[in-house]
Each structure stands twice: as C-alpha cells, then as structure tokens.
Amino acid sequence: MGRGAVRRRGHPGAPIATCEVQGYTYDAKRRTADLADGPLADPALAARLRGEAQLLRERFNRDFWIDERGGYYAIGLDGDKHRIDSMTSNMGHLLWSGIVDDASAGAIASHLMDEPLYSGWGVRTMASTEAGYNPVEYHNGTVWPHDNALIAAGLSRYGHHRDAARIAEAVVRAGGFFDYRLPEVFAGCDAELTHAPVAYPTASSPQAWAAGAPLLLLTTVLGLSPGADGRDSDADLPRPFGHIALSGLSLATSRS
Predict the structure, then answer these.
(1) Is 175 helix (H, G, I), strand (E, B) or coil?
(2) Handedness of CA 235, 61, 104, 148 (dihedral sign)
(3) Share above pLDDT 90 across residues of the chain, in percent, rounded to a whole number
(4) 26-33: which pairs have CB atoms within 8 A and are 24 or more residues apart?
C-alpha cells in the first residue's frame, strides 16, 4: 500500500497517530493564539500558531478522510501513514475540537447518530459493524459518559443541536439506572434489546470523568459558553430534563 492507502487487515504498525490527538493539538494552538493576542501581548506568536493550526487542519482533512461508507475519518494513521479504517466515537472529539471541515460535519454527525455507533444509551466507542466490536470490551464497543459529553458538545458546535440533546437525554436517562452516579463506562448493548444499560463489571464508580460529563452535557444543551460576548444562548433542552433555573450567572455586563 502506498502513502494514504487504507489498512484493513492485520495489526497497524507503530507509531500510530490517532485522529483525536490531531484535533486536540489544533484546538490548543488556536486557544494559545487567543492568549497571545490577549494577556501575552505577542501578536507574532498568535499569527504563527494560527498559521500552524490552519496547516494542520488542511493536512488532517486530506490525510485522515476516507471516502467510503458515506465518508468518515480514520481512527488514525499507522507507522507507514496508512489510514486505519475502524469507525469509532473518536470522530465526535474531532467535532469538539473544530478541526472538521464544515462540508464533512454532516456525514460525521450522521455516523455518530446511526445505529452502528448509537446504542440508544449513547455513542459506542466502536461501531457494531466493525470486526473488533464487542459491547463489553473497554475501547471496542462500550459507552463512555465523558466521551459522549464531548461528542454532544462537538455536535452542538457544528449546529446539530437536536443530536446533542438526544445524546444528553440518553446519558442522563442511563444515569438513573446507576442511582445518578454515572460509572466510568457501561456496555454498548442496544437499548431496544436490554431496556436498561448493562453494567461493565470493573467500571470505576464514582469516576471523575464520568462525574464531569453531566455538567458538560447541561452547558451544551443550554448553549452556555464562557466568553460568549453577550450573545444569547442557543438552548435545546430535552423535555426529560424538566425545569432548570440558573442563578448567579454572569453574561457580559449583567448578572442573573
């Protein structure tokens, strides 16, 4: 296989460049550029970081994109720069980071919310159509609450607010079966088959990532974002959340 080919057989050779890390790096460069424009007072650094971020975005969308199956991002590149074609929840982290081209975001949202990845209790770490899928294997089919919180935030970032709200409602509903103390992870079994989320036998509970997930889900469906410059929130609150009141919230020059 040549550069940019898709690897479908055997184990990918190290080192592996996972897709979400490219997004995290892009996001970090953009955020640091904002700091350079502000308190760091270093416009040259800001310009350099934004240029590097843009170049990374362009290369990422070229090198990680797979045209097959409606179009999606490879989970990573192996040591020979071949695309690893497993379809996973990592794509949602790409939406969160903002590295995804606008033209590709709709396809990614569709994959995340389609049955192979979406279990009804949240997005699985690996689609049920993949050879490695197992609903009770840690990274290959389970549902992670914190993973889903980032996915929901990413979907909302690209305007897919109803999909974000659907994930938020599903994860919070799943939490009810765990006395509203979300575990680290639970099984990725189909909600229509189990009617309750299946516990993962060795999941940590409580667990810090999982404990933080409802907070990000809530701010996502309420459309709240720090530094919103006085703009109205873009809320799409799922009905099961009921009535939510916020107090002591500062927005621009006002305080509720």
Answers:
(1) helix
(2) negative
(3) 79
(4) 26/53, 26/56, 26/57, 26/60, 26/97, 26/98, 26/99, 27/96, 27/97, 27/98, 27/99, 29/53, 29/56, 30/98
Q: Kindly give the pairing relationship between strand 76-77 and strand 17-18.
A: antiparallel
**Is residue 7 helix, strand or coil?**
strand
* The dihedral sign for the CA sequence 103, 53, 147, 150: negative
* Helical H segments across the chain, by residue range: 19-37, 43-63, 90-97, 102-113, 145-157, 161-176, 191-194, 208-222
What are the phi and psi torsion angles at 99 (to 5°)? -80, -15
Which residues lie closer than 8 Å to 126 by C-beta, 6 or more apart?
86, 87, 88, 89, 132, 133, 139, 140, 141, 188
Those residues with Cβ within 8 angstroms of residue 131's Cβ, 6 or more apart along the chain or in another chain: none
Q: What is the pLDDT of residue 13?
A: 74
Return the axis-axis angle of helices 90-97 and 145-157, rounded to nearest 10°: 40
- Within 10 A of 51 (CB to CB), how many other CB atoms are there? 12
119 closest CA partner among 151, 85, 71? 151
| CB of 205 closer than 8 Å to CB of 184 | yes
Verdict on whether the full-model pTM lies above 0.70: yes
- Look up tokens 């509203």; give the residue: 180
Sort 190 into a burial class: Cβ within 10 Å, 0-12 / 13-18 / 19+: middle
**For the chain, domain boundaries:** 1-85, 100-256
Residues whose CB is less than 8 angstroms from the CB of residue 194 and which lie 6 or more positions away in sequence, other chains included: none
How high is the pLDDT of residue 3? 45
Q: Is the pLDDT of residue 2 over 90?
A: no
